[in-house]
Design brief:
Length: about 160
């Protein structure tokens, strides 16, 4: 199980490349073979998946039966039509295609946030990421306040 954790600041170069932090590359190393699958994320960001997670994601989309065939085709067009397989260069950078740069509004700002979301990464325009933080903080507080996360410990570990 991957544990991609943390948020890092970086910058996009003039060729549309961004360096993925070494901590993430090291965590991804056994599963990604120096490559990621990127596509539009939920919201104004880019989602970057190692191959096993990408395959699970695509399979979940294929098996989702709550959409009619036309809507499903439109969804696949948005996800798969904008997807790219990208390879890390020697400096740990990936090249982001122009349509994804526009989707995430990275063509408006070279300042980037790279966020670990457990099993995949999100790549954000730093300003948009900061705008998301306010409403997300309220949602976090409300949701976490309603979930009972108390853990019971005993001699054997967690119950």
């Amino acid at each position: 199980m991957l544990a991609l954790l943390g948020t890092y600041s970086n910058s996009l170069d003039e060729k549309g490349r961004v360096a993925i932090p070494a901590k993430f590359r090291n965590a991804l190393a056994p599963e990604c073979n120096d490559r990621l699958f990127i596509t539009r994320g939920l919201g104004d960001n880019i989602a970057a998946y190692p191959k096993p997670e990408w395959e699970r994601y695509v399979n979940a989309l294929l098996q989702y039966n709550k959409l009619d065939e036309i809507t499903k085709a439109k969804m696949f067009r948005q996800v798969m039509g904008r997807a790219s397989e990208v390879v890390f260069d020697k400096q740990g950078r990936i090249n982001i295609p122009q349509d994804l740069l526009k989707h995430a509004k990275l063509d408006e700002s070279r300042n980037v946030k790279i966020v670990g979301v457990g099993k995949y990464l999100e790549i954000w325009n730093s300003e948009l990421y900061a705008k998301e933080a306010g409403p997300e903080e309220k949602l976090f507080q409300e949701t976490m306040g309603s979930i009972n996360l108390s853990l019971n410990y005993n001699n054997d570990g967690l119950d």
